Amino acid sequence: MKIALVAEHTSPLPAHKGEPTCGESVHIASVSRHLAKLGHRVTVYSRKDAEDLPGRSRMGRGVNVEYLTAGPHYTLGEHEVSEHTGTFASALATRLGEDTPDVIHAFGWTSGLAALSAARTAEGVTEDTPIVQTFHSLNASEQRAGLPERQERVRLEAAIAGRADAVIVNSADQRFELARMGLPRTRVSVVPYGVDTDHFTVEGGVATEPWKGRREERPRIISVTGLVGGGADALIEAMVRIPEAELVIVAGPAPIELALDDDARRLELLAKEAGVDDRVTLAGPVDRKEMPRLLRSADIYVSAAPYDPYGGGLLEAMACGLPVVATAVGSATGAVLDGTTGILLRSARPEALGAALRGLISEPTMRSAYGIAGADRAESRFTWQRVAAETERVYTRARPQEDELLAAVGDDAH
Fold this sequence. Notes:
Blueprint: E1 2-7, H1 13-16, H2 23-37, E2 41-47, E3 56-60, E4 63-68, H3 78-82, H4 85-98, E5 103-107, H5 109-121, E6 131-135, H6 139-144, H7 151-163, E7 166-169, H8 172-180, E8 188-190, E9 220-224, H9 232-238, E10 246-250, H10 262-274, E11 280-282, H11 291-296, E12 300-303, H12 312-319, E13 324-327, H13 332-335, E14 342-345, H14 350-361, H15 364-381, H16 384-398, H17 402-413
Parallel strand pairs: 1-2, 1-5, 2-4, 5-6, 6-7, 7-8, 9-10, 9-12, 10-11, 12-13, 13-14
Antiparallel strand pairs: 3-4
């Protein structure tokens, strides 16, 4: 198949190069490469967000990335991107007409709008060309986690889901939200986020600099999260209840820039006021090449995020053999088996986090058992190879079957 992946606001190249990046970039880079390994030709269409980006870039055998000009050549926020979706859709229609795909697969609601619009006007794209929509996140789900309400986005997500030939979500929670919107469950496939189990493994070295290596006298807790809204505040407050442990937070700007970052300074002040600043490290972003070494230097991975649509950090930690503690939201509910690979919490209150982490620290045998089970689960359920194969099956089901095409030809002949 010739597959067009539409990712208006995300480029797969940062993830392909191993740079710190967002979960969607990792998803698109990984799925496109593995779809190509299954024999398909993949073109990813993204918005050009930097002046020096080429019009077209090869990302490996069978995978190309094309950058379409739509708006300014710098990174935009979600709602800023949507202001240029119409321009992006027009450019996309031109390219789809020049290189007609067998399947169009959009990631995110703005990409879904662009794909539906482009498919209507692109030469060569017919009603038989299926449009598949992936939602990593739905605003209805975000609202339940206390994030801002975006009523216009809710309406658009429902409309896009209704127009698409097939919808993919990362978790059963998202399928439930779409069912509440009136979309039949049979139209929605749950294909989880994945993990590179060749890169994230139990075997291998551990990080030294710049994290000053492992402090043998202190258990290490690690979290990959945002400095705002990712639960970092609750984690720092929880450290008061775990005086024997240290916390490494992978987030924010590079360590050299932390002193200039308002959110980093706020967290550092919070740690100082709580009396745990000597046991909390803001590591900044970490290249994906180094991330497994850093994860393996820790004893426990924790996610206190009120909402996590990807669950990538959890899966990478599990693949490296770490027991995990996470709030039971989003993709975490499908990734973590409570009491088998880790602990799922109803809320990320510092008291609950502290109790769960303290309990795991005091039970090395349980930590080891969770870690072994987590690595096995990551390898058996969440590899990108399996994610790509399940995505391929969605495409196959969405495409008209041969007998349907023959019937259509027969009808046209009459």
